Amino acid sequence: MSLLQRARANVREDLDAAMRRDPAAQNRVDVAVNSPGLHAIWAYRAAHALWVKGPTYRPVARALSTLTRAATGVEIHPGARIGRRFFIDHGMGVVVGATAVVGDDVMLYHGVTLGGRSLQRGVKRHPTLGDRVIVGAGARVLGDIEVGADAQIGANSVVVKDVPAGAVATGIPARVRMPATPDEDPYDRLYAEPAIFI
């Protein structure tokens, strides 16, 4: 598969992910034109490709991320590592730090910060999110912590400790709750933990 074919397939995959997660989306064209979260993701992917090429390309990668922040309100450091089918709903105010690692099928709402808690250089300072994690509006996930696959972070929560796979974390500081049963429906989880509403 050529680079162009791969890029086209990735764009289509991102558009399909947005269509699945955004009930207001009318069609792929609507999402492609009007989703600042998707625009930020696409620009990040280009900036990251430059970043991994090495120090010579990093100033260009940073400039692209700065322009993207100005255009979309989303700041993703080109050094972050982000998986497939990532989606940012609304976008405005999202910050993803340089050493953040984000799995596949992750969704962030507006105002989310994946930030650091240390000023030390050359170390991992930002969180790692597993696959299918959902982070609610205004949440802060801070430090070199791990949020396990299928976890949910409630709106406006502040998470500074690891969150196990499948757990719900809400509050300031976040309190972790495991599902009542292994097959608990995600919608039932919303009613058991109202702070997760986003």
TrEMBL record:
Q: Which domain of life is it from?
A: Bacteria
GO BP: cysteine biosynthetic process from serine
Which CDD domains does the UniProt record give?
Answer: LbH_SAT
Q: Write the record's keywords in alphabetical order, separated by commas.
A: Acyltransferase, Amino-acid biosynthesis, Cysteine biosynthesis, Repeat, Transferase
EC annotation from Swiss-Prot or TrEMBL: 2.3.1.30
- Output the Gene Ontology terms for molecular function: serine O-acetyltransferase activity
Which reaction equations make up its catalytic activity? L-serine + acetyl-CoA = O-acetyl-L-serine + CoA
| Alphabetical list of InterPro entries matching this protein | Hexapep, Hexapep_transf_CS, LbH_SAT, Ser_AcTrfase_N_sf, Ser_O-AcTrfase, Serine_acetyltransferase, Trimer_LpxA-like_sf
The pathway entry for this protein reads as:
Amino-acid biosynthesis; L-cysteine biosynthesis; L-cysteine from L-serine: step 1/2
| GO cellular component terms, semicolon-separated | cytoplasm
Which Pfam family is one of this chain's hits?
Hexapep
Question: Can you tell me which family this protein belongs to?
Answer: Belongs to the transferase hexapeptide repeat family.
Q: What name appears for this protein in its UniProt entry?
A: Serine acetyltransferase
